[in-house]
Design a protein that fits this description.
Layout lengths: L9 E4 L5 H12 L3 E6 L4 H13 L3 E6 L5 H15 L4 E4 L14 H29 L2 E6 L12 H21 L4 E8 L14 H10 L8 H12 L10 E4 L7
Parallel strand pairs: 1-2, 1-4, 2-3, 4-5, 5-6, 6-7
Helix pairs in contact: 1-7, 3-4, 4-5
């Protein structure tokens, strides 16, 4: 059963056109949130499909185009959202990129791209809405990190480093704003069957290794992640902040 915990509340989900972001947007809309779904203009078709799906179910969803790595674009998005909704209750920083390269093959531009979206993007969007959260002494921020941010892996050192930064940003910010009624937590997915996550699943041997190290013996799907986000967003998590919760089927235990 999905409870309508988001009635009369507004949520922003970045990177919402597909995968985990789309699943989060759909779940929050089903809980009653007025959802603003963000992604690049290049994802227009996927965002249109998301909005149509949500509205067909009788729920609320609107589109905000923005490049989260661009400060001016983020500021424009924040102003547009607050003008349209009058407020924001929940921010889900989900937008992210990933690629697979040996460390010696990672060029400076690719390293910078990883941090620009995954880390800087999380910072910029959060910073844009912090004054609003502080003014009303309330707010929920949920950052989508990765178990890779807790234990680095081969061929994705740049990605893991960017997600480790997200986890540490979450912890530091949580302390800064805890007395202002704002909670900040992170969700750390494991291997999830999305366009971005399928690089772990490209061949039988890779898949075998993934399943072998996962206690539940299966790959996750986007719907496996949304419950943790919805929990951190809810009043049930009012006394929880600065945490990074693994959603990985039993790969990491810390």
């Amino acid at each position: 059963m999905i409870y309508r915990r988001g009635e009369n509340k507004t949520a922003l989900v970045t990177g919402a056109s597909r995968g985990i972001g789309r699943a989060i947007a759909e779940r929050l809309a089903a809980e009653g949130y007025r959802v603003f779904a963000n992604d690049l203009k290049a994802r227009e078709a996927e965002l249109d499909d998301l909005v149509a799906t949500v509205r067909k179910a009788g729920d609320l969803c609107e589109i905000l185009y923005c490049d989260v790595s661009d400060p001016a674009s983020v500021e424009t998005m924040a102003k547009d959202l607050l003008a349209k909704s009058g407020g924001l209750d929940l921010l889900v920083n989900n937008a992210g990129v990933r690629s697979v390269h040996e460390a010696g093959d990672i060029g400076p531009d690719e390293w910078d791209r990883m941090f620009a979206v995954n880390t800087k993007g999380t910072f910029l969007v959060t910073k844009a809405f912090l004054p609003h959260f502080r003014a009303k002494s309330a707010g929920r921020i949920v950052n989508i990190a990765s178990i890779g941010g807790k234990r680095g892996g081969p061929t994705e050192t740049h990605y893991c480093a960017s997600k480790a930064a997200v986890i540490n940003f979450t912890q530091g910010l949580a302390v800064e704003v805890a007395k202002e009624g704002i909670t900040v937590n992170a969700v750390c997915p494991g291997v999830i069957d999305t366009d971005m996550g399928r690089t772990h699943l490209e061949d039988a041997e890779t898949l075998r290794k993934v399943l072998e190290k996962t206690a539940m013996g299966r790959v996750g799907n986007p719907q496996d992640v949304v419950g943790a986000v919805a929990f951190f967003a809810s009043d049930d998590a009012a006394f929880i902040t600065g945490q990074s919760l693994n959603v990985d089927g039993g790969i990491l235990f810390h």
